[in-house]
Write a structure and sequence with these properties.
The complex is a heterodimer of chains A (about 160) and B (about 450).
Chain A: E1 14-17, E2 20-24, H1 28-40, E3 45-53, E4 71-79, E5 84-93, E6 98-100, H2 110-120, E7 123-125
Parallel strand pairs in A: 2-5, 6-7
Antiparallel strand pairs in A: 1-2, 3-4, 4-5
Chain B: H1 34-42, E1 67-71, E2 83-89, E3 92-99, H2 107-111, H3 116-123, H4 131-146, H5 152-180, H6 184-205, E4 214-215, E5 218-219, H7 227-250, H8 253-259, H9 267-272, H10 278-281, H11 289-292, H12 313-337, H13 355-360, H14 362-373, E6 381-389, E7 392-400, E8 408-412, H15 414-418, H16 422-426, H17 431-441, H18 445-449
Antiparallel strand pairs in B: 1-2, 2-3, 4-5, 6-7, 7-8
Helix pairs in contact in B: 3-4, 4-5, 5-6, 5-12, 5-17, 6-7, 7-12
The chains are: A alpha/beta (about 160), B mainly alpha (about 450).
């Protein structure tokens, strides 16, 4: 485990993260300041940003003091100079999940935030162009949410009687 | 929600009403918000520490001088179903917006209903030119959650296959890039040489393209008898022929004119946009996960990380050509150092009993049946495992709730992220250069859309 950068907001819970050097659990208010401090500290690349819907798995392990919410935004930052990775997991909210956009810090998070908006309905404050990216414009619902069912294709067996 | 800039189908803007994409498409300049214009033309400037004035974005240009045209989704040079909306001023590209999602099949959602054993068949179809890289990143994530050791031979087999796959992927890139530039003979040569590797894959895994060869705990099958000779032939042939490509393309004045100095990108811009892989290395950043954060046994083989200088099309071409040679070097070392032993973990949790035992032992039969119907449970947790795919950092973020299926499977697709560099690279170039930009970014639409 590596320490938090010196300019990080105080009181951010941290933990071990599998295959990563540090896991951080900022609140919505601390989130942007924490990512900015990591960027200052030499984390040049926002490797990944994705949403997770914990509707059916609420009892996950979180450090003490972190209130689990339904949606979580997971950011993986990468430092090329220090060869380190950190994982930032921010509890984004239950019904209307809404977090700050990382666009001003890492312009490369633009498409990934659009993807999280499209597939989970997580809103990103300060994103320049929050539109659907993978689904069609007039699509209803956010497919990767756990209460969005998987579609099925009816299978017609050769010998079985037809639907009509 | 009103203060957020969320555009939806209800707020249809003029001009794009007729198209099915609505707000996703490129809007006319006078209907585009300043913040979005800033994203398209100036986002990366902020990486240099300059603040962008949102009012200073080509304001002098009158709208009726420009034209928005569609390129794709079914355009042969878009390498799949990529749709680009280009704003043109005569022959010059001002703004570009990639419109993606035409190949979206919900593979991340599908991954949540497939067991960990079946998951490989799903992820292998994402980046269809480098299936081994996808499976590897997925299986390494599963193995980290399970905390199981992979036998040494399996590691080396994985490395051998991953490098052969890198060669075949780069060969297809050389072929299609040649095609885009009118070097049609390169098209034939690239696919011809790739066939050698696909034939070896078929011999080893039984399939040519979507292999599902790397499994949690090891690989699906041991290398076939006489694999050394096959690999030797592949190495010799392809190494020798890279010099022929060199002569054919690098020595071609038209090819060089269209590649050299076209669409440059700086290291700061590439890093700000999250670009990885050959495109990042072309700017001179020696970042290759095989070297910098080694996985498998890459720390035990000798190879060079190829970097460029100018970050232009030609550097990206030269890097891929030389990476083929470096991969051949790694494959030769795999050939030399391939250890003996098991090709998959002997942990009964992930590995089915041997075929011979199933006929004589009821327990083995039940075990086999349970493993392939129910799958194995993976401890609760989450992991992000990244590898260097031929296109850049391929990451797999996996969340497990303790059940036999992943709770969440997210793939950090390098093509998806690299696609963000397209508007920057195309800006100010010609339409004909737009073709080379798409080509040298090397997007695989199956991976972009997943």
């Amino acid at each position: 485990m590596i320490p938090l950068p010196p300019t990080a907001p105080p009181g951010v819970p941290t933990s071990e993260a599998l295959a990563s050097d540090l896991g951080c659990f900022p609140t919505l208010e601390q989130y942007l300041a924490l990512v900015a401090s990591f960027k200052e500290d030499g984390f040049e690349l926002c490797a990944d940003l994705c949403g997770v819907d914990y509707l059916e798995h609420p009892g996950r392990a979180l450090p003490e003091g972190v209130v689990a919410t339904r949606f979580e935004v997971v950011v993986n930052l990468l430092s090329l100079s220090k060869r380190q990775r950190v994982r930032i997991r921010v509890q984004a909210g239950n019904d209307e999940a809404r977090v700050n956009s990382l666009f001003d810090l890492y312009p490369g998070s633009e498409a990934m935030e659009r993807e999280a908006f499209d597939l989970f309905g997580i809103l990103f404050d300060g994103h320049p162009d929050l539109t659907r990216i993978l689904m069609p414009e007039d699509w209803e619902g956010h497919p990767l949410r756990k209460d969005y069912s998987v579609g099925r294709v009816p299978v017609q067996f050769k010998e079985a009687p037809g639907p009509r | 929600m009103s203060d957020l800039h969320v555009r939806s189908a209800e707020r249809l803007d003029p001009l794009t009403v007729e198209t099915s994409e609505g707000a996703q498409g490129l809007q006319r300049r006078d209907f585009t918000k300043k913040s979005e214009l800033g994203r398209e033309v100036g986002a990366v400037l902020r990486a240099h520490g300059l603040m962008l004035d949102p009012n200073d974005v080509d304001v002098e240009r009158q709208d009726d001088e420009t034209m928005i045209i569609n390129m794709g989704p079914a355009h042969p040079s878009t390498h799949g179903v990529l749709r680009l909306m280009l704003e043109l001023d005569g022959e010059f590209v001002l703004r570009t917006k990639p419109v993606i999602g035409y190949l979206h099949t919900g593979m991340e959602k599908t991954g949540e209903v497939l067991s960990y054993v079946q998951g490989g068949t799903n992820v292998t179809r994402m980046d269809y030119l480098s299936p081994i890289a996808n499976e590897l990143s997925y299986c390494m994530a599963v193995e980290k959650l399970l905390d199981i050791e992979v036998p040494e031979r399996a590691t080396w087999i994985r490395m051998l296959m991953a490098e052969l796959n890198r060669i075949s992927s780069h060969l297809v890139w050389m072929a299609t890039n040649g095609m885009d530039l009118g070097a049609t003979s390169m098209m034939i040569y690239g696919f011809r040489e790739r066939e050698l590797i696909l034939a070896f894959f078929e011999k080893t895994a039984g399939l040519r393209l979507n292999l599902n060869y790397v499994r949690p705990g090891g690989v699906a099958a041991d290398l076939p008898d006489g694999w050394e000779d096959d690999v030797e032939v592949i190495c010799d042939t392809i190494y020798e022929r890279t010099f022929e490509y060199d002569e054919l393309l690098t020595g071609q004045p038209i090819f060089r004119l269209r590649m050299e100095g076209v669409a440059p990108i700086t290291a700061e811009e590439a890093l700000a946009l999250g670009v990885t892989g050959p495109v990042l290395r072309s700017t001179g950043v020696p970042w290759d996960l095989r070297r910098t954060l080694p996985y498998l046994a890459y720390d035990q083989v000798d190879f060079d990380v190829i970097v460029g200088t100018y970050g232009d099309n030609f550097d990206r071409y030269a890097i891929r050509l030389n990476e083929i040679r470096e991969s051949v070097r790694i494959v030769r070392q795999c050939l030399e150092k391939m250890p003996r032993g098991d090709y998959r973990s002997q942990d009964p949790k992930v590995t089915p009993p041997p075929r011979a035992r199933i006929g004589e032992s009821m327990e083995a039969l039940i075990h086999h049946f349970k493993l392939f119907t129910e799958g194995f449970a993976v401890p609760t947790g989450e992991v992000y495992s990244a590898i260097e795919s031929p296109r850049g950092e391929l990451g797999c973020y996996l969340v497990s709730d303790g059940g036999p299926q992943p709770y969440r499977l997210h793939v950090r697709a390098p093509s998806f992220v690299n696609m963000q560099a397209v508007p920057l690279l195309m800006r100010g170039g010609m339409v004909s250069d737009a073709i080379t930009v798409i080509s040298t970014i090397d997007p695989i639409m199956g991976e972009v859309d997943r």
